[in-house]
Amino acid sequence: MGARMTIVDTHADSLGAVLAGRRRLFDPAAEGQWDFVRATQSGQRLQFLSCWVEPEYVPDRALARLLAYIEAFWREVEAAPGLVRPVRAAEDLAGVVAGAPLGVALAVEGGDALGTDPGRVSLLYRLGVRMLSLTWNGRNQLADGAEEPGAGGLSRAGRRMVEAMNRVGMIPDVSHLAERGFWELLEIAALPPVASHSNCRALADHPRNLSDVQIRALAERGGVQGITYVRAFLGGTADLERVVDHVLHVLDVTGTDSSVGLGSDFDGVEEAVPGLEDVSRVGALAERLSGRGLSEATVARVMGGNWLRYLEQVWGGTPALHYRL
């Protein structure tokens, strides 16, 4: 089964350690849960790497910090020719399916660096960013995060930012967004929103997780939910079997196998999930999904096929939604 799967993961925080000077992503002997070599050896074909601006840089140094993350991404890609390549458009996806080298894409987690300037969305797109969430856990000038007391919706500036995302074809990510903002974004987003790394609130009552109503709405819009390995978002035993539980819950709630994928949060978790300690273990997840009764076709969709379908859809869309320099 593994040789025929295309493994895609939409959230890892590995760039933080690179920016701190603790590791290089082409070095498999370094610390951390994810790198180019181990990902390739595991059979992974595409990884979204996240740029998260730490609170101490907000607000005055947020943009400079975000640009440093983006520079770190391109420095790592350029340092590993033949091992990894950037993925930014529909034409890049053929290589993802065909084989080596590993594809990597850029995401921004939290819109603090945008301020209230919608023009920065097109700047980020030009620099290679393809996925953007408006908030992290708290409040910024755009919206409230999932852990913000009061949990409000999008601000006027936040709505303008979504309109700018619509114009360039930036994928809207609802992970970390408060529930009211989730619904408001679904109303105005041109592309189907995604949850890059969010689990099921019915199984773990955490504000970062999605309710069943949200899960169904995301699926109905054509979005995908990436199941994450953050133990606080898993609940229960918080192990490999619990990750499978969340996948099965999405399948049950939506009645389809087309709206769930992986969003590990490798290198962003404080304590690894037993059985999924790093990217080299991801094949065990496919085995357990099969062991719990899912067909080979459904397992392949969960492990990466659904994310590929989504990306082919949004990047192969109308010219108005497919921005080019």
From TrEMBL:
Keywords: Dipeptidase, Hydrolase, Protease
EC number from the UniProt entry: 3.4.13.19
One biological process term in Gene Ontology: proteolysis
Pfam families reported in the protein's UniProt record: Peptidase_M19
Gene Ontology molecular functions: metallodipeptidase activity
InterPro entries tied to this protein: Metal_Hydrolase, Pept_M19
SUPFAM superfamilies assigned to the protein according to its UniProt record, in alphabetical order: Metallo-dependent hydrolases
UniProt superkingdom: Bacteria
Record protein name field: Putative Membrane dipeptidase
Organism this protein belongs to: Candidatus Hydrogenisulfobacillus filiaventi
